[in-house]
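3.2 Worked example (two chains)
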Amino acid sequence: MLLATAQTSTMQEEMRRVAATGYRFVAVQGGGTVFGGSEVVAVMSRNPEAEGGPTYDYLLLATTRTSTMQKELQGAGAAGYTYAGQTVFPTGLGSKEVVVILERGGCEPEGDAYEYRLLGTRRTSTMHEELNAAAAEGFTLVGMTESQMTFGVTELVSILHRRSEGGASMRVSGIALGSSATTLGIGGTATLTPTVFYCDGTSEPLDYEWIPSDGSYLHLTESGRLTAVAPGSREFTMNYWGYTASVVITVLPR
């Protein structure tokens, strides 16, 4: 089965939908279309004679920032997801984001926990040194691609992983997004407060990297700091390896 979409979030939903019927991921490719747009294409297959076989769950991570991808890979690896494939996907801002597909499931639903390391550099000599250093620590290369940042710089991105001990207790069960205040006056400030929940019943604040923006009502910094600039409401949404959470902040008139 071939899946194609112009949105990475839609691709994750489609992959999970067909995986529930016995399909398993085979390959992925991102690129331009004949109409000038961009889309991600994934191929999935199943054995029609293998009734009642294992099913798989899929997680799709996409970002133009290697630091953000590193954090999300760590969370997914702790939950038992393992690398399945990667590609690059052109964005509307002239950059290319790295898209990584991870898989979990099969005969052992709990799976192994993995620790991930992402290396990004513009120099092959530097990548050579960093790959050797990571290999000495037990990491194995699972994928390599090229990414272009919003300011036109192209870098080589390598993804490595190794099995980690005791990762099962850190399996993520959900996330939540709050704020130190949900109603502000003009000039007021607040901070978005993401939280991650684990299957063992524990939780902790999530170090989430926001994309700064100067909205009509609220300005947002990379650390999640909000400043109210005009009356109105805005919904802020975050995605963390398959889970979505949001919060609405309202700015009151003077």
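3.2.1 Second chain
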Amino acid sequence: MNNIYSNYLPLVTITQSMIQSLPVSLRYLETQGNNFQSVNEGALQFMPPNLSYIDAGGNRFLYGKYIHDLHSLKTLKVLKLNGGNNLHKIPTTEPTSTFSDNCWQGNSNARPKPLIFNLPPNLLCLDLRFSGLAYILSELTIDENNSLDSMILSTNYFPVLQGPIHGLFKLSKLFISGCFVQLINERMFQNLDSLQELRLRNNELDYFFRDASRKPIFRDLKNLKILDLSINALTVFDGDILKDLDALEEINLSQNNMWQFNISISNMSNLHMLNLSHAQLGTLPLK
């Protein structure tokens, strides 16, 4: 037997004994849509030795210490934990307790340690498209010993880009398209000065850009060359949105509903592509 399909198990915690009951020949494991919330610490090391695919989407996994056991899954190539319905901030500290055997264990009074995500040191592209992620994209710290050049988060659910993101000093491409983004905090991009390409197409940023109290969110992106804000239902694009972005080469504002475009682009000596197609503009009052 190489596959197990499980539609429902009324369990909360995945235990070592449950894992050890799986056949050693198992390569694919699908447990979507159950009531799993946690995994006993240390249990993952008893997974079948040739397991390469796990889809545990649509469960209720809580953030716990078991995440540090994922490194024991040496043969795993695909891990899907998508499909949750709740919206949370990304955790910034290590868990001080864990959910095990239907109860919380650990010292809830212990001082939490900062959580630092570790990436493979030679990883160049992290692609999480269509992963079912649903988060407020809050402060995120990644170990600076990484080579990440591209991060693709498109087609998930990130209504708020809060940030900041720490540790991605080599990141040049960031795609957050089709993520229902409605709000961007001024700190979101403050540590991403190496960024050269930013794709925010197909979001919901009209009200955000119409807000007079909005801060200049792109001001730290001094090396940005490509900015894509197409398909955002934008009606107004003015003020200091693109202030100090002198390195810009391409701006895509196509397929919006803009009736006003009052942006100074005269200082952009490197700009060679401005896409305003299907934007319903009556005039181009470029300063």
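3.3 Remarks
The chain has two domains: 10-94+112-195, 218-286.
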